[in-house]
Design a protein that fits this description.
about 600 residues; four-stranded antiparallel β-sheet; about 10% strand; elongated
């Protein structure tokens, strides 16, 4: 019975060891995969990369030359009292040290050059990846998350990658050459030194596993701090208007404390490595001195051997004592690389299918067929919505806030992935159109339109990057911008500041309408384009919108029902469902209808 239990324990132990080994190999493979994944970015600069890394070899090996040169100096000058023979040794030491410094400068220059280029290329790839992300992705991320994962991580990963490889090569070459000096001077002492060296390296080898969770938490906390800065920048007027200084300072301090605590955890887990190594190294040096003294007195080695050995040993152990900090840097770089590769390899949720075709025109109609959608699982926003919009029609969506109106128009250009139901344009599912060609046929004017930092001209030309001056002027005229442009000293070339902060709401809207004009897409989406404007601005913007709607198929989301009375068809959306559809006259005559109730409430309010 006991033997069976013992056998079972042995098998269980072996299976556990096998599992750990497999997990270790997976982790090892992940690191190799990450390095392999980043290599295409290094390849264009491989010559300079090779130079930077190759220079690390003589840099490391020259440490041994300095230690080795002390043997003849000690034996001849200190023991034999001969000052004539070794005059060249100090000169050689200066020469080799100077050469090492020059090589180190060249290596650092090439390393930083390659790192900068690779980092920029990786950032470009991540930026391109970011632009193609669906709106779902941005809904779940903060600005701090985006900056950290798509900018800072790339800098950390690429900056540390070559630098750490260069450091490792240099230290390995230095260590091997110094070990050779140790063996040359005394193989007995070398055995002790190498044994102590192995003991000292073991704690540093476990650093990645120890640090991984803490570093990731620290990076996450740091991204929240970046978000705080962005919010103060974007919401500065709200902070002032509501006197939120104390509140925002409290939140910021809380986030800073979180960053501090996570970084202190990293320090707690790594700082212990250095004193452990100091103790181990000091034991090694003490053993070498003790046993070395015995070897000198017994005539097995000379004083020169001993001094050369101790010098090489100290040079060997000095970087080992700093392995804790180096391991922390390497671990941070590898974890950043891991996150960069993860972002690169993350599948996009909206992509062209293999059979996707170009949408060359819009000729017939748009059909929503039993469309359901949810931003969060089991919380549907749309429920089996079906309707048809003929070419040239104006289709208005009305209803209470949060009913799903904006979701409907966001699904048409595929800002979000459609998972249930279908949307057809000219009897072709929009998922079978190439995304770029689909969006080329849709122009959008939102309630809050984003304007890029730059000039009015540059923002209008977003609609058509190769627009002629004549086309731009026509768009300006149709968007009722001419009078405003003429009042500006620099006209179309007036700088509007970041996000158009130097413009009024009505001016921003008309610039957005002008770029929609310039795009000249057959389908236009107007998502509450006038709801945030005063009456005077609304009248001007509405005139511009009326011009934009001519000969277009238009989806209008309107808060004020008076603006959609002339729509060809009005759909009432209530709690994600299409509850009524028809013209204004048809809907207003439905007793106890949703539209009639909304209209009468708004009429009484007005």
């Amino acid at each position: 019975m006991k033997s069976r239990l013992s056998l079972r324990k042995i098998i269980k132990f072996l299976l556990l060891k096998l599992k750990r080994s497999v997990n270790h190999q997976i982790r090892k493979t992940d690191t190799l995969y990450n390095l392999k994944r980043i290599m295409p970015f290094v390849k264009p600069y491989w010559r300079r990369t090779v130079i930077a890394l190759a220079l690390a070899v003589p840099i490391g090996c020259l440490d041994a030359v300095i230690a080795l040169s002390l043997k003849p100096y000690m034996d001849i000058v200190m023991i034999e009292k001969n000052v004539q023979s070794p005059w060249y040794i100090p000169i050689l030491i200066v020469a080799f040290t100077s050469l090492q410094g020059i090589l180190n400068y060249a290596s650092t220059y090439y390393n930083d050059w390659v790192t900068g280029k690779v980092s920029n290329d990786v950032k470009r790839a991540l930026y391109n990846k970011l632009m193609y992300k669906s709106s779902t992705f941005f809904d779940k991320k903060t600005s701090g998350d985006i900056q950290k994962k798509f900018n800072k991580d790339a800098q950390t990963a690429c900056g540390g990658l070559l630098g750490n490889i260069k450091m490792i090569i240099s230290r390995v070459c230095s260590s091997l050459s110094l070990i050779a000096v140790l063996i040359y001077n005394s193989w007995q002492l070398a055995i002790i030194a190498i044994f102590i060296l192995i003991l000292a390296i073991i704690p540093a080898a476990r650093t990645k596993k120890i640090l991984k969770s803490a570093v990731n938490k620290s990076e996450g906390a740091s991204s929240v701090v970046i978000t705080d800065y962005n919010e103060v920048y974007s919401g500065s007027k709200i902070v002032k208007a509501f006197n939120l200084y104390k509140r925002q300072n409290g939140i910021f301090q809380q986030h800073l404390n979180t960053v501090f605590r996570t970084r202190m955890k990293i320090t707690q887990r790594t700082a212990i490595i250095s004193p452990i190594m100091h103790v181990i190294v000091s034991v090694g040096i003490a053993l070498a001195i003790g046993f070395g003294s015995y070897l000198i007195t017994t005539g097995q080695i000379t004083s020169g051997n001993f001094v050369s050995f101790i010098t090489a040993l100290i040079m060997l152990y000095t970087p080992i004592k700093g392995l804790g900090g180096s391991a922390k840097s390497i671990t941070g770089s590898l974890l950043a690389l891991e996150r960069v590769v993860k972002n690169m390899d993350a599948p996009d949720d909206i992509i062209d299918s293999d059979e996707a075709v170009d949408m060359k025109s819009f000729d017939k109609d748009i059909i929503f067929n039993k469309v359901s959608f949810a931003y969060k699982k089991n919380k549907p926003v749309l429920k089996d919505v079906s309707f048809t919009v003929k070419k040239g029609q104006t289709f208005a969506l009305v209803g209470n806030s949060g009913g799903g109106k904006s979701t409907i128009v966001n699904l048409l250009p595929r800002f979000y992935p459609l998972k249930k139901g279908s949307i057809l344009i000219d009897d072709v599912d929009i998922r079978d159109y190439k995304i770029n060609s689909l969006r080329d046929n849709i122009a959008i004017v939102l309630q809050e339109n984003f304007l890029f930092a730059g000039t009015i001209r540059e923002n209008i030309m977003v609609g058509k990057l190769d627009a002629t001056e004549e086309e731009i002027n026509k768009a300006v005229e149709n968007a009722c911008l001419s009078e405003f442009i003429e009042s500006l000293e620099e006209g179309l070339d007036t700088n509007i500041g970041e996000r158009g902060v130097l413009l009024s709401g009505g001016q921003k809207q008309r610039i957005a309408i002008a770029r929609a004009f310039l795009k000249d897409a057959p389908i236009v989406i107007l998502d509450e384009a006038t709801s945030s404007l005063d009456n005077q601005s609304e009248a001007v913007v509405q005139n511009a919108i009326d011009n934009l709607m001519k000969d277009k198929t238009v989806f209008v989301i309107a808060h004020r029902l008076s603006t959609v009375k002339n729509a060809n068809k009005i759909a009432v959306i209530h709690e994600g469902q299409l509850v009524e559809t028809g013209t204004h006259e048809e809907l207003i005559n439905i007793e106890k209808g949703y539209y009639k109730e909304l209209y009468e409430m708004q009429f009484k309010k007005d």
